[in-house]
Amino acid sequence: MSNNGHSPQIDYHLHGLVGIRLIDPSPSDVQAVTRQLGPIQSPLSSKPDITIRFVDRLSASSRVRFLGVDEAGFTDDAFLVLRSRHKARARVQIPMDRIGKDCEIICETGLPAVPLLIPIINLTALGKGGVPLHASAFIYNDKGVITTGWSRGGKTEMLLAFTSHGAEYIGDEWVYISPDGQRMHGIPEPIRVWDWHLEDLPQYRVYVSRGDRARWQAIKMLQAMDRMTSPRARQEFPPAKALNRLMPLLKSQLSADIHPERLFGNRFGSLTGNFDLLLFAASHDMPGTHVEPITPSQVARRMVFSLQYERLAFMGYYNMFRFAFPDRVNSLVERAEEIQRELLMQVMANKPAYAVYHPYPAVIPDLFDAVSPLIDSFSTTGEHGIRKV
């Protein structure tokens, strides 16, 4: 520890896929990065793939020209991201053309999070042959299961369904598949638990903070007031009209982010396991939960575009970078769709794969009832079929 309370160097190792090194971080900087990556601190035996250097003030080599309002900027030789988590003001220098090749990010100390860190890690892993997948993963009856699909498709719900029956947590949000397709690895990011999850899993209610529960109660009171308001009042009475317009925003606040180690206790394990079974989850307009075989190539082709969608925010900044420096190209970013298509087809090939269709919101016990017999039969006989609940 240096005289200013900063650590000279802290390393993080993402399951052998990506090495990250922090240079001169403050204790709050280490906490911020650990919140993003989880407790994966481990000394690196080789040069880091990503270096994050923290400074008190990031000086500019020339005047800063702005892109958008408080979004990004550039000098004669550097690209700056000016917004961090929850739109907090930031000043971070990111060489977009160096992602995947000894990338050094320079951050002003004290940020709530390093902006774009997860997509930068994902691209770096992709460049090394690993596959970042928008997914959840768990181990149940000694079988490693990945659930993937579009956002809000039921990935977290599948994870909660099985961890509530003793499954070991591997990851939620982002799961990394090894280049040979045999192993899966997780980052322990906070899990977003919705109020309706607790209707099926009341045992998790104790992990929601008092503040979050009070916020939920206040929102539900406002929702009840809106339901009791007549359509005419919503049109003619300004406060009722304003409240009705707020309903979608208020509904989106009925969630709490909880660290998986707190949520799952001894089911929070090594964050790594074998990749044995692939589930593709999606909601549908029919009653009940329906499970049917799907080819892994179908899942792979679809997930290419899910990953493109998840990278949209990053691509906005990359296009700003190209606007600022038209001659500075990152071939990894430019070819990401092509690379991930090829790798997804490789790592998913020959995996048993099933589509799980369910109403929205999903009935979490139904997910377990529909899928667990399939895993059990796979564990013992290798036979699979179609199951409805």
How would you portray this structure in words?
The protein has 389 residues and is of the alpha+beta class. It folds into 3 domains: 9-126, no CATH class; 129-190 and 261-388, Rossmann fold, CATH 3.40.50; 199-258, no CATH class. Helices cover 36% and strands 25% of the residues. The protein has helices spanning 27-37, 117-127, 155-163, 197-200, 210-228, 231-236, 238-251, 260-264, 296-310, 312-324, 331-334, 336-348, 364-380, and strands spanning 9-14, 18-23, 50-55, 65-67, 72-74, 79-83, 89-93, 103-108, 131-140, 143-148, 168-171, 174-177, 183-186, 191-194, 255-258, 272-274, 277-283, 290-293, 353-358, 387-388. The protein is globular, with a radius of gyration of 23 Å. The model is unreliable at 380-389 (pLDDT under 50).
Number of strands: 20
Strand content: 25-35%
Q: How large is the count of helical segments?
A: 13
What is the terminal separation in angstroms? 57 Å
What is the fold-level CATH name, i.e. the topology of the largest domain? Answer: Rossmann fold
Low-confidence stretches: 380-389
Average residue pLDDT: 93
**What's the number of domains?**
3
Query: What is the helix content?
Result: 25-40%
- Which geometry do the CA atoms define? globular
Q: Architecture of the largest domain, CATH level 2? A: 3-Layer(aba) Sandwich
Quaternary status of these chains? single chain
Structural class based on helices, strands and sheet pairing = alpha+beta
Q: Quick one: CATH class of the largest domain? A: Alpha Beta
Tell me about the largest β-sheet: 10 strands, mixed
Radius of gyration: 23 Å
